[in-house]
């Protein structure tokens, strides 16, 4: 049905460009009329101290008042950002199945996430998203698959054909239009500034239209420049705007929709090619029953404005009255300037100095009070700002106080972890759909850093989603990690000094859990074989007790006990573990368990005789203790003398 009853996103290809542009314009109008855009601009300008006068120097207004900004607002927000993003993101891909092969694939997926996180700056984009979300209330991460990225495959005419690769970019609310009715928007319109000549080269059929287009310079864009981007070059003749529409799969649009528009022309058009929306939204909080985001920054703005006014008053008083004044009742008072810059004052009455630069002590108390309230409102205490109270002496006390600040921002940290999981999920799903046959990722283990490995595309096909674990708040402090390391060392969980050093430095548990993960995958694989009646091989160096405990689960069900193949394979396998355990030499057993090697007994007699010599002496049938190896010569001589004095029948038995 055509006309006003038609859903705008269902417009025909010849009309969709105008519909998308109109929808974006409507969204910009909503930002202005609702006042939401002004709130964002105010917070942005206060954080970066931007105004028409510059904001980075002492300014004089028409009333000769000196304006100065002392930006605790920025300091508190940056500290909040550091606390939220301090720990490295721990990606945890999950597979559709739970077998050992799927676990290995999930670990490969984690390696790919870690590779893109470090080498492709995914983690950097996510970290910046947290800071920008606090300042501007909400931030968006656009993670499309770009055909202009990746490795070069061939040259098609004037175009270079590439493998394609994942792309990550952050967007403010001013460049990402969305529904102003539904909290979870079913559509997004991305506005990106691009080089018009690059786009014209990629789409030669629309070359003229794209090259002749320019950046939109309407009222919204002028407001955007006032919002802080004063250096934005709206007259840049090499640039233009590209609009991208993503629409979720809904009853109205069952296949979803993906449209790219530049120069008023539709570059691409069709169903949503992604398995899920490639746009993730990060918010510190939300205003209940609205689509507006919330942020701790809004509570700090008033405090910062008041502090700036008080500091400006103190500075104004000091600057305006910096020149000393004198008073005298003598009307014939004269002041003469001497050659060395000093002044000669002549008066019949001793003049008095007037000090007008003194500021009331209450002003400084009010400044301190506002500073304390700013810390209370943000949850960032003195310890979190690197200035702990003098009564906090021990490391554990400092850790507890710091954890309180971490817990305050835990809601934002959870949002950060959720969005990081969404972006990681988008990455792996895009690799599954668009990726080349070979993918690159970090290998698992303690030496993951700097070592990469290629994987086949099918190695990650079963991965369903990615979660991110931020861990215990105590893990984010050195004192907390020290406490965990000490406890785990006492319990034997940590044995290798390199593991302890790596954990204290990074807070990551890979170095501690790597061996356990490999053992768990091996045992799970063996259990799967036993359930099929296959008896896998047993090695001498296996962790036999751990294997047997886990293998017992195979025959714990009534169905398994009624299957002779499973029973025979499992019991035979467990018996082989017992046999191999008995064959383990004591030295190897000590090494595996982390215990000291057993001391070797001397092969000679008690007095150092040759091997196969006399055994320990006996008295009335009872063996006498032998001298420990390495005993002092004097002790050995006394021991031998006592043997020589024994009656022949009580001497060493032959």
Structural account:
- The protein is an alpha+beta fold and 654 residues long.
- Among the domains are: 35-174 and 297-318 and 361-471, no CATH class; 323-356, no CATH class; 477-593, no CATH class.
- It is built from 20 helices and 26 strands.
- It has a 5-stranded antiparallel beta sheet. Strands 9-4-15 form a 3-stranded antiparallel beta sheet, covered by helices on one side.
- The protein is flat and about 125 Å long.
- The protein starts with 12 loop residues before the first helix and ends in a 10-residue tail after the last helix.
Relevant terms:
654 residues, alpha+beta, 3-stranded antiparallel β-sheet, flat
Helix content: 40-55%
What is the overall number of helices? 20
Major sheet: arrangement of strands: 10-11-12-13-14
The rough form would be described as flat
Structural topology:
Blueprint: H1 13-34, H2 36-48, E1 59-60, E2 66-67, H3 72-85, E3 90-95, H4 100-119, H5 122-136, E4 139-142, E5 145-146, E6 152-156, E7 159-162, E8 165-166, E9 169-171, E10 176-178, E11 187-195, H6 196-202, H7 207-212, H8 219-226, E12 239-247, E13 257-262, E14 265-270, E15 279-282, E16 285-286, E17 293-294, H9 297-320, E18 325-327, E19 334-337, E20 343-346, E21 352-354, H10 361-378, H11 395-408, H12 410-434, E22 438-442, E23 452-456, E24 463-469, H13 478-490, H14 497-506, H15 510-531, H16 544-551, H17 558-561, H18 564-583, H19 586-593, E25 618-619, E26 622-623, H20 633-644
Antiparallel strand pairs: 1-2, 3-24, 4-9, 4-15, 5-8, 6-7, 10-11, 11-12, 12-13, 13-14, 16-17, 18-21, 19-20, 22-23, 25-26
């Amino acid at each position: 049905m055509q006309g006003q009853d038609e859903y705008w996103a269902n417009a025909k290809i010849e009309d969709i460009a105008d519909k998308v542009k109109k929808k974006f314009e409507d969204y910009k109008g909503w930002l202005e009329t609702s006042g939401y855009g002004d709130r964002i601009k105010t917070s942005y300008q206060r954080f970066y101290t931007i105004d028409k006068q510059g904001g980075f120097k002492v300014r004089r207004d028409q009333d000769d008042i000196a304006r100065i900004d002392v930006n605790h607002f920025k300091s508190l927000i940056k500290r909040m950002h550091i606390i939220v993003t301090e720990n490295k993101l721990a990606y945890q891909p999950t597979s559709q199945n739970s077998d050992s092969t799927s676990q290995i694939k999930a670990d490969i997926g984690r390696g790919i996430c870690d590779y893109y996180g470090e080498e492709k700056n995914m983690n950097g984009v996510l970290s910046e998203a947290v800071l920008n979300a606090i300042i501007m209330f909400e931030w968006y991460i656009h993670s499309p698959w770009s055909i202009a990225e990746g490795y070069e495959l061939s040259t098609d005419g004037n175009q270079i054909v590439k493998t394609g690769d994942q792309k990550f970019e952050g967007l403010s609310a001013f460049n990402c239009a969305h529904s102003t009715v539904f909290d979870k928007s079913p559509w997004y319109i991305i506005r990106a500034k691009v080089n018009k000549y690059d786009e014209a080269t990629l789409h030669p059929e629309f070359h003229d239209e794209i090259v002749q287009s320019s950046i939109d310079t309407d009222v919204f864009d002028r407001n955007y420049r006032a919002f802080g981007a004063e250096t934005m070059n709206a007259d840049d003749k090499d640039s233009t705007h590209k609009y991208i529409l993503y629409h979720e799969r809904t009853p109205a649009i069952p296949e979803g929709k993906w449209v790219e528009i530049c120069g008023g022309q539709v570059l691409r058009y069709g169903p949503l090619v992604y398995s899920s929306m490639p746009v993730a939204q990060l918010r510190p909080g939300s205003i209940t029953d609205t689509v507006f985001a919330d942020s701790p920054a809004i509570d700090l703005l008033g405090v910062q404005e008041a502090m700036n006014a008080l500091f400006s008053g103190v500075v104004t008083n000091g600057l305006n009255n910096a020149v000393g004044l004198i008073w005298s009742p003598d009307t014939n008072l004269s002041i003469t300037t001497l050659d060395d810059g000093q002044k000669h004052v002549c008066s019949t009455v001793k003049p008095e100095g007037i000090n007008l630069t003194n500021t009331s002590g209450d002003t400084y108390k009010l400044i301190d009070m506002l500073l304390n309230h700013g810390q209370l409102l943000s949850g960032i205490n003195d310890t979190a700002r690197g200035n702990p109270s003098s009564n906090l002496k021990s490391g554990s006390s400092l850790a507890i106080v710091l954890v309180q600040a971490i817990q305050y921002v835990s809601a934002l940290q959870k949002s950060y972890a959720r969005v990081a999981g969404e972006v990681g999920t988008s990455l792996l799903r895009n690799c599954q759909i668009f990726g080349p046959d070979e993918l690159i990722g970090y290998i698992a283990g303690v030496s993951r850093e700097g070592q990469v490995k290629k994987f086949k595309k099918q190695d990650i096909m079963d991965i369903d989603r990615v979660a991110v674990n931020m861990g215990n708040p105590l893990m984010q402090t050195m004192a907390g990690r020290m406490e965990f390391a000490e406890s785990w060392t006492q319990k034997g969980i940590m044995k290798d000094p390199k593991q302890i050093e790596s954990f204290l430095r990074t807070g990551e548990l890979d170095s501690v859990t790597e061996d356990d993960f490999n053992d768990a995958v091996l045992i799970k694989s063996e259990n799967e074989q036993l359930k099929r009646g296959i008896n896998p091989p047993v090695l001498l160096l296996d962790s036999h007790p751990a294997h047997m405990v886990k293998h017992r689960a195979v025959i714990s069900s009534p169905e398994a006990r009624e299957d002779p193949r499973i029973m025979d394979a499992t019991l035979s396998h467990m018996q082989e573990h017992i046999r191999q355990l008995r064959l383990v030499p004591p030295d190897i057993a000590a090494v595996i368990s982390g215990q000291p090697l057993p001391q070797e007994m001397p092969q000679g007699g008690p007095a150092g005789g040759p091997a196969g010599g006399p055994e320990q002496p006996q008295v009335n049938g009872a063996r006498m203790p032998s001298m420990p190896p390495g005993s002092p010569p004097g002790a050995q001589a006394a021991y031998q003398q006592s043997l020589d004095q024994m009656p022949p029948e009580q001497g060493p038995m032959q």
